[in-house]
Amino acid sequence: MKRTIHINGLANVRDLGGLDREDGTMSPEGVFVRSERLDLVDTEGWTALTAYGVRTVIDLRRPDERTGQIPASIKHVHVDLDGDDETEFWAEYERDGRWGTPLYYLAHLHSLPHRLALVLDAIAAADDGAILFHCSAGWDRTGLVATVLLRALDVTEDAAVADYLGSFANANAMIALHERSFEVEGRQEVLGRFGHTAESAFRDMYANLDLDSWFSTSNVEASTRVAITTWRGTAPELGSSKRERILD
């Protein structure tokens, strides 16, 4: 993938820039970077990330998952996207395996809007510079946040799907680097039981993600919404007439 950033200690890292938008432009580069856990990033890797412009790291993991050290020169923010205490929501998805697939994304946004709101507030409040956000595998919690950011900028469905599938393409390299399974076959088996492939599950979710409706009911501050829909001022905000045409 041309958007891949080569960083020592990471195998599932990429810039969300360079993706096709519906208006024919591309998403800006150097604003948002997604990755897996940062435990294996060495000094050279951190130097490369700093040179790339990363000034803030947002860790989306639950408190008991957090590991690794971040250089003092980079702001480190912890936001539990899952919700360590949201056991009632997660019970069903953990029981049938959908927790590791896009099949939970829309339900999460509907049932736990405050969790995403905390992430978006952190993005809006971050210092100037690129933001790297990650979970453990850089797959689905990271994927959920990436999905919202791509939808906010009207990135095409095909381009958003390609970004999501990048984690599957990186799976073997991740296994080799981190010396652990990322349950690729298990994810695919779960998706199959629900009548989906990885692509169809993500495509269906993305097509049905009504971000305008989510913003209208989530009590997110107007300033945060603007920060997200303009990618922190790097892209013009999508006009209301354009939004109405998309929703129609």
What is the mean predicted local confidence, pLDDT? 94
Give the amount of beta strand, in percent. Answer: 5-15%
Unreliable segments of 5+ consecutive residues: 243-248
Provide the number of structural domains: 1
Counted by DSSP, the helix tally is 12
Structural class, from helix and strand content? alpha/beta
CATH top level is Alpha Beta
Global morphology: globular
Please give a structural write-up.
With 248 residues, the chain is α/β, with parallel strands linked by helices. It has one domain: Protein-Tyrosine Phosphatase, Chain A. Helix content is 47%, strand content 8%. The protein contains 12 helices and 5 strands. The protein has helices spanning 43-52, 87-96, 105-111, 113-125, 141-152, 157-169, 171-178, 184-193, 198-207, 211-217, 222-229, 240-247; strands at 14-15, 32-35, 54-59, 75-78, 130-134. It has a 5-stranded mixed beta sheet with strand order 1-2-5-3-4. Helix 3 packs across helix 4 (113-125), helix 4 crosses helix 11 (222-229) and helix 6 (157-169) packs antiparallel against helix 9. The longest helix is centred in the middle third of the chain and has 13 residues, at 113-125. The protein is globular, with a radius of gyration of 17 Å. The two termini are 33 Å apart. Mean pLDDT is 94; it is low at 243-248.
